[in-house]
Amino acid sequence: MTHTRIMLLGAPGAGKGTQAALLADKLGIPHISTGDMLRAAVVAETPVGLEAKAVMEAGKLVSDEIVIAIAGERLAEEDAGKGFILDGFPRTLAQAEALEGVLARIGSGLDCCLAFTVDSEEVVQRLLKRAEIEGRADDNEETIRERMRVYDDMTAPLLAHYEKRGLLVEVPGRGTIEEVSEATIGALAGP
Ligand code: AMP
Hints:
Elements: E1 5-10, H1 16-27, E2 31-33, H2 34-44, H3 47-57, H4 64-75, E3 84-87, H5 93-105, E4 112-117, H6 120-134, H7 141-155, H8 157-164, E5 168-172, H9 177-189
Parallel strand pairs: 1-3, 1-4, 2-3, 4-5
Helix pairs in contact: 1-9, 2-3, 4-5, 6-7
The structure holds adenosine monophosphate.
């Protein structure tokens, strides 16, 4: 398996975070989640956290400027040199272009974009269930709908962007965590 610079794409609740953690563990490379970094910043009440809190609670996107800065800093850390699983970044075309710039500067590039496909009603049900279990502030029904809309408007265009670059691999997000994990590993191994 040669792919180690991997990004995961998919609607909220498509199972990206779970699969990112499993894959990072399996490949021994860092799981880089801008959502996790932003939640930590909110808890720590850093300037970024203070700015991001209300935006996240409303289910909207934090500014490109902020997320590009935090993702860029994280990717520059030594452990990301051998590869990474990007989870939740990039989410806009501007972020995708910035990522290409960051990686080009360190003489690297993405190996592939794994896109998790799921039925949107199934996703809403998953998110409502996760809301109950984790009590995430951005997992109420209204916010979930807003996050889906934001995904369709801002993030779904990345599918065509990565398809054009020959980097897109679709993974059916249906089934148990184990089934999706197997499909993910299979997708990385190629045909
Ligand atoms: P996630 O855990 O990836 O679903 O992210 C939770 C929330 O953090 C999102 O709904 C956004 O408000 C914010 N966020 C995370 N990553 C990004 C990103 N790449 N661009 C903009 N906002 C982001």
